[in-house]
Amino acid sequence: MRTFVSAAAVLIGLLMAAVAVPAIWVDRNIVREDGFVALAAPLGQDPVFQRRLATAAVGSLGVEHRIPEVVAELARPILDNAAQSLAGMPGYPGAWAETLRRSHRLTFADPGTLPPEAAGATALTLDVAPLVGLVAKQVSDATNLPLAAPEQVLIHIGKSNQRQAVERVAAYAPMGYAVATGAGIAFLLALVAARRRWTVLAGTGAGALVLAGAWKLAADAGGGALAGASSGNEMADIFTREFASASAGSFGQWILTVALAGGVLLVVGLLVRAAGGRRA
Questions:
Q1: pLDDT at 120 exceeding the cut of 70
Q2: Domain boundaries, the chain
Q3: Which is more confident, 88 or 246?
Q4: Which residue, 107, 199, 234, 259, is the most exposed by fewest CB within 10 angstroms?
């Protein structure tokens, strides 16, 4: 009976861990604002994505309609330069980080609090107003005319039916911590109930290696599906592809950690078994 309880507890613990680890990663790196900003920050360095962002930022400023024509002609070279080298401007990293923060708040906010143009629109809504403000400051400094940037400049990425998936992720990902606690209790119960504790260590280690392999296959399949999908919007496709790549790299580190921990447990279990055999 003790052997059955121990084996069942190990199996239950592994099943719970299979759910808990990805859920905790999602909560820390996507649902939480700081994690999302850290994960997505490198995307602003992609040259093609930069140009698309810069073009959107410059176009949203509407300089030709807001300052005299003569001054607009003087500002045109600055705008053309901004469209080509926005990332080289002083303050770009901070403006891009603020863009990601605003975008995360729009994406994971309560739908009832969103502005009409953002509510339920797409899976992700980028608010590039901080980047537009960066361009506006460059123009103001060069022309000595005050030029205020819009408070919001929204760019929609994804499809409207993906919004429901985002809401489910935000609701269920934090539950991963409770599931992880349950997995820990199950493994502890398995150790207490086991007649041969080395089997629990070795079995848990082998199961962790299997989980790591399954997560790797699932991550590669999901990343490949996202990379191969096309929305018809170049900026959206670039963001999706690069974000999927960054996510795979980040989760890959977690997978490696679990695989190493599983290998250690498996080796320790076998060493304990060998030591017990020599004593016998």
A1: no
A2: 2-20+191-279, 31-167
A3: 246
A4: 234
Asked if the model's pLDDT at residue 95 lies above 90, the reply is no
The size of the chain, in residues, is 280
Residue 116 burial (C-beta neighbours within 10 Å; 0-12, 13-18, 19+): exposed
pTM greater than 0.85 (yes/no)? no
Q: Which long-range contacts (CB under 8 A, 24 or more apart) does 212-218 make?
A: 212/255, 212/256, 212/258, 212/259, 212/262, 213/259, 214/18, 215/18, 215/21, 215/22, 215/251, 215/255, 215/258, 216/252, 216/255
Could you report how far apart the first and last alpha carbons of the chain are, in Å? 24
Helix (H, G, I), strand (E, B) or coil at 91: coil
- Residue identified by tokens 């997978």 is 255
Which residue, chain included where needed, has tokens 């107003």? 129
The yes-or-no verdict on residue 229 having pLDDT over 70 is: no
